[in-house]
């Protein structure tokens, strides 16, 4: 599907992987709607991308009402730009490590688990669910009858979650598992679904990692021996938008890294 002339909604698009994709989409002639929490990070990005091409919509993806309001704003914006919604990229995510039960036999707190799942899993599903009617009601522009694409973000933790990653792995494993059934649900509308599962990538999420943990992760890497760059994520996501044969698949983007149990 061509990016030019279409709008793409990116949650968590103010930072990291989502931001790199937003830049790539705009430079390819598309518009972006950034749904995020943080105006201090989002507003300079909108200025950089130019306000006629990008819009920031404050939205907590764990709130169904806030997503509904964001959908209305996107609908209104699209009616002015005439760039139909061609893609949904739920990239908002949080990591909150915690052992299922610690050394003193204290079980992980349910509040933390609910918080993580409400963003990484529920927020992904809810955002996609509520935005899909905007994509499914567009007029296809090619012979395949393609209307759009959903690109979800899992993680290596979906396959090799480390110690302390039970909740995060649950959220990302669920996102990976949703990929094929969602593609099957959406094929009648000409909407594809692809999930990218990155290993460690440079972003705000990994910037807070202690040096010792980062060095330990580097030891587990094959090639290249470094964190991925957000632009490398954006490059694959762009291909996922443009290549109609990519559908119903989870693509690992990890330089052959397989996470060990602990570092
Ligand atoms: N960076 C990595 O190493 C890595 C690896 C695998 C998967 N991921 C996944 O990639 C995605 C993007 O992460 P990133 O590395 O770019 O991190 P990031 O922290 O740079 O960006 C995440 C963005 O999500 C936003 N966000 C958080 N909670 C939100 C909420 N409730 N509603 C709306 N927005 C919210 C944040 O404000 C931030 O802008 C996440 O789903 C993450 O789990 C990242």
TrEMBL record:
<dbReference type="InterPro" id="IPR020904">
    <property type="entry name" value="Sc_DH/Rdtase_CS"/>
</dbReference>
<dbReference type="GO" id="GO:0016491">
    <property type="term" value="F:oxidoreductase activity"/>
</dbReference>
<dbReference type="InterPro" id="IPR057326">
    <property type="entry name" value="KR_dom"/>
</dbReference>
<protein>
    <submittedName>
        <fullName>3-hydroxyacyl-CoA dehydrogenase type-2</fullName>
    </submittedName>
</protein>
<dbReference type="InterPro" id="IPR036291">
    <property type="entry name" value="NAD(P)-bd_dom_sf"/>
</dbReference>
<dbReference type="InterPro" id="IPR002347">
    <property type="entry name" value="SDR_fam"/>
</dbReference>
<keyword id="KW-0560">Oxidoreductase</keyword>
<feature type="domain" description="Ketoreductase">
    <location>
        <begin position="6"/>
        <end position="199"/>
    </location>
</feature>
<dbReference type="Pfam" id="PF00106">
    <property type="entry name" value="adh_short"/>
</dbReference>
<keyword id="KW-0521">NADP</keyword>
């Amino acid at each position: 599907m061509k990016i030019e002339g279409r709008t793409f909604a990116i949650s968590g698009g103010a930072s990291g992987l989502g931001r790199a994709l937003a830049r790539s989409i705009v430079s390819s002639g598309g518009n972006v709607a950034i749904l995020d929490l943080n105006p201090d990070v989002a507003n300079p990005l909108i200025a950089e991308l130019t306000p006629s091409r990008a819009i920031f919509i404050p939205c907590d993806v764990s709130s169904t009402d806030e997503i509904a309001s964001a959908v209305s704003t996107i609908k209104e914006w699209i009616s002015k730009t005439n760039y139909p919604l061609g893609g949904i990229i739920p990239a908002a995510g949080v990591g909150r490590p915690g052992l299922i039960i610690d050394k003193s036999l204290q079980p992980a707190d349910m509040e933390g688990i609910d918080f993580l799942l409400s963003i990484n899993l529920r927020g992904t599903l809810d955002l996609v669910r509520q935005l899909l009617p905007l994509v499914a009601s567009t007029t296809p522009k090619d012979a395949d009858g393609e209307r759009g694409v959903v690109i979800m973000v899992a993680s290596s933790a979906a396959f090799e979650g480390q110690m302390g990653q039970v909740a995060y792995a649950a959220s990302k494993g669920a996102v990976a598992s949703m990929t094929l059934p969602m593609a099957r649900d959406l094929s009648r509308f000409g909407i594809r679904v692809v999930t990218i599962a990155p290993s460690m990538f440079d972003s705000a999420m990994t910037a807070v990692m202690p040096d010792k943990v980062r060095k330990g992760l580097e030891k587990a890497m094959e090639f290249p021996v470094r964190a991925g760059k957000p632009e490398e994520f954006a490059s694959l996501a762009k291909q996922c938008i443009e290549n109609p044969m990519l559908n119903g698949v989870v693509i690992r983007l990890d330089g052959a890294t397989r996470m060990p149990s602990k570092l």
